[in-house]
Every structure is written in structure tokens, then in C-alpha cells.
Amino acid sequence: MATTESLRPASTGTIAFSVNGRAVAIPAPGARRLSRVLREDLGLTGTKVGCDAGDCGACTVLLNGEPVCACLVAAGQVAGCEITTVEGLATRSLLADRLQQSFLHHGAAQCGACTPGMLVAATALLEKNSSPNEAEVMDFIGGVLCRCTGYRKIIRAVMEAGQVAAEVSPQAGQAVGARLVRLDGSKKVNGTEVFGADEIPPGALGVRVIRCPHHRARFQLGDLEQFAASHPGVELVLTAKDVPGTDCYGVIPRFADQPVFAHHEARYRGEAVAAVVGEPDALEALDPAEFPVRWEPLPAIQTIAEGLAEQAPRIHSQREGNVLVRGRVVCGDVDRALADADVVVEGDYETGFVEHAYIEPEAGFARRVGDTIEVQACTQSPYMDRADIAKILGLAPEEVRIIPTAVGGGFGSKLDLSVQPFVALAAWKLGRPVRMVYSRTESIVSTTKRHPAQMRLRAGASRDGKLTALDFRADFNTGAYSSWGPTVAGRVPVHASGPYRVPNYRALTRAVHTNIVPAGAFRGFGVPQAAIAQEQLYDDLASKLGMDPLEFRILNALEDDTPTVTGQVLGEGVGIRACFEALRPKWRAARISAERLNAESNGPLRRGVGVAGMWYGCGNTSLPNPSTVRIGLKRDGRIALHQGAVDIGQGSNTIVTQICADAIGAPVTHFYLISGDTSITPDCGKTSASRQTFVTGKAAHMAGSKLRAEILQLAGSCKCGTLEFSDGSIAVVENGNRKAIDLRALPLDAHGYVITCEATFDPPITPLDENGQGTPYAVYGFGAHMAEIEVDIELGTVHVLKVTAAHDVGRAINPTLIEGQIEGGVAQGLGMALMEEFFPGKGENLHDYLIPSAGDIPPVESILIEDPSSIGPFGAKGIGEQAVIPTAPAILNAIHHAIGVRIHKVPATPDRVRAAILAKSGAPRG
Ligand code: FES
Ligand code: FES
Fold it and tell me: Fewer beta carbons below 10 Å: N end or C end of the chain?
């Protein structure tokens, strides 16, 4: 990117420059960031802000044709210059227009938060070089981070920008299985998608939250009235005493324990103790050090061991031993089976905090409308937000309206409240709109993380290679509040066996409170951590048995008729063996090649090939999990799809429509979406646990089938009739006869439609008994990854060369979107395996907390297996969380294959790998 040094400084007063070919002159202070000028002064919100520090590249624009980070450019530096933002790309050149089409075609935009920056950076490249190679593309987009896609589809979209043919929409009845371009894609590539920070209601006030700077501290607030009076522009200071309802919320009501503002003692660094509400400029000028609060730091519990220590003070008085909750699944007699096993292996494994690092920090606004409060913000769970905001404000749920914006990545963390209580409370009290955008640091210090885990395992097998027993214990650092700790502690014991038949099994877990920012949901709810331990241990078992690791897994893979560790016999759709078998030819070739290269190598590089399996239950664990979808046939022949499943980039807007369209027999072009607004869409539950394709998709299928039946009935036709939609009418064709229904002549129902159909689907599950036996999930997704890597034994660095990912998705509703989930999952799994670890209190930015960039991601080959579930819509299962689980253990197993060392603590950073090499060789460290 261009440096800003060469830019011409502006004179004071107005700053004149050109944006997207239009001359503008703004009375901006010269030091104002260009990103703010574009977004706030010129309304060009296509340019995103992910960090305000030059780390993420989301704000990339062209300055005289060169890509720059607009957050690092002062407005005064662009006087007389030409700026191009994503909104102006298509008019800049045909090439840029084609690039946007290519992004759509290849599924290169998921959440879309990075997309404007990516498109701008890639345009700069294509204008210099219209047919770049892969390395050139990676180099040019390397400064723009993406947390969703794993970059591979972006790279391909850039390389093939000139080769994309016009998209053809599938015919009626052929949407399922089609590589349909995402229906909400255009707004993501032209910069018009509205994210949490993109709308500023006229007259909106801002919020600045005062957060605890210590891991634990008592605090005393000073004279707040005097503070407000002495700071012009400050309208209100909120503290715990201003919460009119119940100052206690949480994503699982039974465990709710989090206040909006701490009362006297803050339990973690970053916890809110007060909020200053006022004019945005006044808040910006505010020095937080002036806020009247006196801190008294207290000894803090930071680790699991400290939390469990006998003398440890309780973080929550009602939770003995700081244990939030325990999880347990037991079957057979594990002690006896281990004693009788021919081979036993054991190991301890540890994982750290992982930051979600979505590109869009939390943002939104609230406004009071009469006796209701409206909150428009990024969220994965509008109805859960509604329940908690109602509780906090002391309102009925119907008096709260949640309007989700586009979500710039969530991965679980946007299931929890962030800005919502602050803006809702302030807007409710003041009767004025109030807006808040988290800074990157605020996002990192105050929002949930992946749970660190400490795991101890023993596994046994018989001489013939059959797994006989697994004893698994895990403690999770769940932080100061419950968040999704109960879900992690409950889900992991069900999954810690991996997708294998384990007849004797004991998995015990604890979620332990500490004085750290709460750990919550992060793609997999603890299962990725468990898989890191269990899949490495199974490799050790195979090795001790003298078996090939892949063949060991195939031998022990679950089948349709074998019971899981909860005693569930799925009876169908257990595609794990097929996943492993799909890897077999590549596995053999890659292992032989790696071993030959290593035998011949004189240098420091060693090749390794590793494999890992995965299973993951779709939806809530043994809990009700319904989605309700409503569809309405309009007089003009279009179909309104009210589906409340928030699309956080994974593609539910498109997938659910494809399912519904084929259930009706209607073309997708006749649909229009009404998404996620609690006042106009029924509850589709939260977007998490890989449930939207399965649960909401099924509800859409059911609602679509009802609508089809009603249309056929209206025409007096049998089930085999074919529907033909046109403007204002539907024709039903049956045995060559055509019966037309004039929709314009039909009366409208209470919803304003000719026909309204609604359906609810709640997966058939049962509660688990005291040993965790029962049916926790109706459907599981299965998968296996093979990682090919290269280790530099002198430096300890690990380079991933390729990942081959086989996933049983039941039915691939949209292969492009599924591949996108797989590639994105691989990228997050790679980050977890090799580079990502958050240390509370340190590196609270994207400069120090590193996530994979384009250059870190290897080619990913996706193999889609379709072993259908009769419960899922058209046989489909989930893929969102599934995709991330096997990558890290496959990489870690590959490291072991390459250099013969086990990495017991992830991420496998160069220092840890090098230390393991030295420990194995017996050489002194250092
Ligand atoms: S917002 Fe400018 S680089 Fe992140
Ligand atoms: S699509 Fe790149 S960050 Fe979401």
C-alpha cells in the first residue's frame, strides 16, 4: 500500500478532493481520519472500520489509485487527491465490476465485513496486472484480514475476475444442490450492506463505557452529578442503580449472573461500572481519567487451578469451589476396560483463550418509540436479546423490538449482549436515540473468548485395534460470568469420544470461574479443544498398536447401528467412515511421499501428514430448539419468507430460501426475504450450534410444503401438479391441463397475504439421565481432515501445505456456501493450532493478537459426502462448527508424523515446537 508521506498536506479550512469521481469539499479538521470523513461526513459507509489502527485493512480505499488504510490517513493529507471507495469501484472500470461479479460467483464474500477492503485492494492489483498469479494475489490482499472465508475463494475470485459468465438462476424445483449466488450478496460487494455501525439516527447521542482496568477491583464512584455538570455535552451517567428492571442477564436464564454494571466490585478487567452518555464530540474529548471512580485492586483468580484451590474466594457466592457447572457422560465400566486393555495410552493437553476477532466490532443503536424500545445492532440471537433487554428494562418482551443488522462475523460471541443494554438503557431514559460502536480494544477486553481447557485422558484398545475405553477429564476456564459455560461443559462429554465406537467411556467436565473476561460460545462449544486432545491420543494408540492412524479410525468409526457414548443409535446418516475412506487414496500417497522426502532430506525441513475425525450434534444439547418460519403468498405472485435465522455470513438467507423454494416448487427469484426482526419474523432461535440449515431449514421446508398443498387445493389439483409462478397468478399444470389461479382476485388474510403458512420444527431429542445417556441431538454432522505440513526443525516453524477436508453434510444444499464454511473453518482451526492465543490484559488489539492472513492459508480441497438424514430438510445436516473441529488435531498429528514430537499445549508456536524438539533430543533448552 502507498505510504501517506508523499501526500500533499491541506491548508486549513475546507478540504477539497474527489471521491468516486465526485468533487467534494468538507470543513473537516485536517487531522480527522479519512475513514471517518468518508463514513460519517460523506455517508460512504461501504468503507469499514475494524481496528482504527492499520491492522485489519477493512478500511482500504484507493488514494490516487493506490490502496491505503483510510483509518491511517488524515483528511488533511488527501486535499486535491482522488479517492475511490467500494461504492465507486463499479464505475471506475469494467474490471472492478467484473471483480464484484466474480466475488459473488465464487462465494468470496461471507459476512462481508472485509469485502469492501478486499475488493479495493484487489482492484488496485488488477489495474496493474489483469491476470495475477496466486502469489501476487496473496501478496496484494495480504494486508486485509478476513475471519470468515479462509481466503481461498477470494484468491480465486481475483484470479478469475475476467472469466465469470452471467449467473443463471435455477429453475423451479432445482434450487437444492445448486451453486446459487448468495441472495444477499450484491449489497456485500457494492458497499450498501448495513452493519451495526453503519446507521446513525439523526440526533443520536453516544455512549462511553467506563470499564475496570484491573482483573478484580472494588470501586467507589464519586460525584457523578458534578462530573456531568462540569462536562458540557454529557447528558447522563448510568450506573447499576439506574437499571430499572433486573440487573442480571445471561444467555442461559437458569445461570444468568451478569449485571449491566458491576456493583461495588468488578470481577474482570473490562467489566463495565458506568456509562457516560452524551454528544459524540463531547464523549470523544472526554479523558476517562477524569471520571470519578476510585479503584481498589484485589487479588484475582486467573487460572483454573487458582479457581479450584481450596482457599480460593468464591467469585459467585452460590457457586461452591468456583465451579459453575459439571458435565458427565458415562457408559460401560471404564476402569475395568482400561485394566483389561491390551494397550493403554494417556496424555495431558492444554489450550488457551482464543479471540473471535471478527472484523466488525460490536455496534448498534437504540431508540424509544412510545412505550417500546427498539434496538438495532449486530446480533446472532434477536429473540434472546429481546428477552434480556426486556428483563433489564423491566418491560414485557413485546415492548422490545430487536432489529438485527448485517453481522460482520460472529462465530458465537455475538450471541451474548454487548452494546445492547447500554444503548437501550440510555435511549429509554433520555427518549433520544443512542448509538455505540465498540473500539477493537473494547471488543477484545469485554466480549467472550474460546474456553481454555486443561484435559487429561487415558484410552485403551484391544490387540486387534478396537477402542475399548476412554477416560476423559476436562476443566474449562469459564471466566467471571456464566455465558455459555454450561453448554461447553455439557456438550464436550457427549463429543469427547470422537466419532467412534467407545464401549466403555467416562467424560467428566467442569466449567470453573476465574476473574477473566467470560469465555463463551466459539464455533464448536468446546469440542475443538476436546478433539485436540482425543485425536492426538488416538494417534498414540494407533502408533502403539502398530496401526496406520487412518485405518485405526476407519476400524473404529461409528456406524448407523452402533451406539454412541450416550447410548443413541442413529440408525442412518452416519457418514464418518465415508469421510475417512474418501481421504484414503490421498493419505497413502501423501504419507509415502512425506516419509521419502524426510529420508532424503539433509536440511531442516521435515514433512508430515496427519488426520483427525469429527462429529458434532446439530442444535442444542438435549434442550428444546424450535424454529418457526412463516411464508406468505402475495397477490403479485411473490413469496414473502419470514425467517428469523440471522445470517452471520454462513448463508442461511440463501440456504433457507433454497429449501423453501423446492418444498413449494417455486423459483427462488419469486422470493423476498424478511429477516430477523422480532416484530415481523417468528422466532428461529439463535444462529449457533450449526442449527440453522437443519432446524430453520426444516421449518422452512414444512411451511413451504404447506403452502404448496394449499395452492394445489385451491386449484383442485393433486399432489403431482407443477406450479408456474407469474405476475399476479399461479398456474397449476397437471397431466397437461393448466389451471390458473388469479391471485389478485383473492382476499387478503390478517398478515396481508393471499395465503399464509407457518410451521415450527423442534428436533426430536430427549433429556440425558444422570450418566448422560439419552438422545442429545437428532442429527450429527461428520467430517475428517488431512493436513500436510512442513516443519523447520531449526526454527520450530510449521507451514501447512494443504488441507483435504471430507464432510458428511447429509445433502449439500449449496455446495459453494458449504465449501466456504469448510475453508473458513480450516483457517480458524489453523489459527488455533499454530498461532492464536489471547493473554488477558495483554495485546488487546489485532496487531498483537494474530489471526491467519491470506499468506498463511494453504489450498483446501473439500470433499462433500452426502449421507442423508431423514429428519433434516432434503437430508441436510449442519456444517458451521463441524468445519473447524478436525483441522487443529490433524495439523498436530502431522507435526508428530514429521518430527516425532507431541505438542501438548496449543498453539504450537515456534518456541513450543522447538522446545518439544529439544526435549525429545535431550538437548538443553535456550
Ligand atoms: S480499520 Fe483501518 S486497518 Fe483496520
Ligand atoms: S467475509 Fe471476510 S471477514 Fe467475513
Answer: C
